[in-house]
Amino acid sequence: MESKTTMDTPNKRRGRPATEGPTPTQLRILAVIREFIATHGGISPTLTEVGEALDIKAPSVHEQVASMIRKGLVRRAPGKARTLTPVEENFQVPGLVSVPVFGVVPAGVPVFAVENRIGEIWVEESVVRGSCFALRVTGDSMVEANIKDGDFVIVRRQPIAENGEIVVALLGDEATVKRLFISDTLLELRPANPAYRPIRIRQDDELRILGKVLAVRSTSLQEDDQ
Q: Average of pLDDT values for 200-210?
């Protein structure tokens, strides 16, 4: 299965502005979210993990989080795990910075449009150099580069890249993660899995480099609720 970025588009609905403060239970949920992000390399918890941490049953967690979204206390991309984050101007995790996670939208809509942002991930300050974004990988064509299905790639936005660098490229309307190979006579996007063939770029192909992959963040943690 090819290593591609997720093609889902975000739901444009937004939580309503806060009309009342958090309840004691909601304050505890906020504390769990903050601690989880800080201790799991910037990855947000699933609702199941929040419930387990507080010994709260799943239906109650869903109800509380829905209320917190309506109050503007947290945000979460519908149907996507690990996108639950506090909505606080001063929310920070020591040593980490927030990097936006984008989806890929239909042709004609800019990749980095606000409405295409589907969440965020917290990454070490030392990794983030320049304007960065994150995408989630699907497929196993880059496993020998330690990029596995479900991982997040942290990408620096840049329109060009050097030979041998791993890039996120937009080929037509499909985003893919591959190693760039450039020679005098050849331009290819090469997988890191012998089960897949390189993608040879022809003169009439619409290729756009979105950025260079700086780091990978694994999501090997449990992701059983969407």
A: 91
86-102 pLDDT, tens digit each: 886 556 666 778 888 88
Query: One of 4, 141, 212, 218 is an active-site residue; which one?
Result: 141
Domain with CATH 1.10.10.10 in the chain: 24-86
24-86 placed in CATH 1.10.760.10:
no
pLDDT of residue 88: 67
Per the annotation, the verdict on 71 as an active-site residue is: no
Instruction: Write phi, then psi, for 182 (nearest 5 degrees).
Output: -125, 130
Q: Which CATH number fits domain 4-8+96-217: 2.10.109.10, 3.40.50.720, 3.20.20.370, 3.90.850.10?
A: 2.10.109.10
Tokens of 95: 């040593």
CA-to-CA distance for 81 and 44, rounded, in angstroms? 8
Residue 137 near residue 150 (C-beta atoms within 8 A):
yes
Which position among 4, 71, 80, 178 bears the catalytic label?
Answer: 178
pLDDT at 119: 72
Q: Mean pLDDT in the chain?
A: 80
* CA gap 42, 113 in Å, rounded: 23
Please confirm, yes or no, whether 141 is among the known catalytic residues: yes
Residues of the chain with CATH 2.10.109.10: 4-8+96-217
